[in-house]
Amino acid sequence: MIGMFEGIQNAIAYIEDNLTEELDINDIAEKACISAFYFQRIFNILCGFTVGEYVRSRRLSIAAEELSKANAKVIDVAIKYGYDSPDSFTRAFARFHGISPSAAKLKGARLKSFAPVKIKLILEGGTMMDYKIVEKEQFTVMGKARSFTTDTSYADIPKFWEEHNQSKDSDIVCGMYGVCIDGDGACFDYLIADNYIPWNEVPEGFETRVIPAGTWAVFPCKGELPKSLQDVNTKIWSEWLPNCKEYKLAGNYNIEMYTPPTENPDDYYCEIWIPVSVSGGRS
């Protein structure tokens, strides 16, 4: 599916053309012809950093070039690249370059450069990836929800699980599912959830979500967590999806399905469920 890579490159070009403007993740993802929810996930897997990190790094890189080559004022450059004050710009600049903006104006100042990303499809040795396509009826989950941003979710979601497992909430919901549901493109909701039993009351602090009926690509993960899950997740977005011509991404949500713990962590089994639909290019 070369079109996905071309779409992401279009989104990157849009970012580059608008680095001095206010950027909205929904507008960026629109250039890639996918939702903001999926764009951020795919971008992160392919590039190794988040969209937000990329934008900040590019702005600070170009800002340093301008300060070193012209008689630009620090406050003017700060405002140009989206900072509310010289102080916030100075802190961000110093974290990135290791020196202050004023020092960057001095001849011979050592600065860091962050080049624009270019996405290329590189075919390497073939690897086998197990998956199955299944149809599932609509079902409802009940769980504890929290909102996350893509920038920090990889670190914050495991903390959410740890907090849940150490609390009395784990007596109510054991955590059969980890459910990601798109919020506004910038944030998404993550639920630690079980199947909802309709005749039971929903305890205070918990909520239900309806998962629509549809087609799912189900990927098995075997081995110690979180490595086995993360490895399969990376392969889904970087290998399976780009090469899959039969199916395309559907709803803005996905699910991790967990089983009870095993005595040997290497024997642990879980799954990743991705909603899909038949691709328009399928014959």
Short description:
The protein is built from ten helices and nine strands. The protein has helices at residues 2-17, 25-31, 36-47, 51-69, 74-80, 86-97, 101-104, 153-165, 169-172, 227-243; strands at 132-136, 139-149, 177-182, 187-195, 207-211, 214-222, 247-249, 253-258, 269-278.
Keywords:
283 residues; Arc Repressor Mutant, subunit A; 2 domains; Multidrug-efflux Transporter 1 Regulator Bmrr, Chain A; alpha+beta; elongated; 39% helix
Descriptive overview:
This protein is of the alpha+beta class. The protein folds into 2 domains: 2-104, Arc Repressor Mutant, subunit A (Orthogonal Bundle), CATH 1.10.10; 132-278, Multidrug-efflux Transporter 1 Regulator Bmrr, Chain A. It has helices spanning 2-17, 25-31, 36-47, 51-69, 74-80, 86-97, 101-104, 153-165, 169-172, 227-243, and strands at 132-136, 139-149, 177-182, 187-195, 207-211, 214-222, 247-249, 253-258, 269-278. Strands 1, 2, 3, 4, 5, 6, 7, 8 and 9 form a 9-stranded antiparallel sheet that branches. Strand 3 and strand 4 form a beta hairpin. The chain is elongated, with a radius of gyration of 22 Å. The two termini are 15 Å apart. The mean pLDDT is 90.
Radius of gyration, in Å, reads 22 Å
Secondary structure class reads alpha+beta
Please estimate the helix content: 25-40%
Unreliable runs: none
CATH-scheme architecture of the largest domain: Alpha-Beta Barrel
Could you give the order of the helices and strands?
HHHHHHHEEHHEEEEHEEE
Shape: elongated
What is the CATH C level class of the largest domain, in words? Alpha Beta
Q: How would a crystallographer describe the biggest sheet?
A: 9 strands, antiparallel
Mean pLDDT level = 90
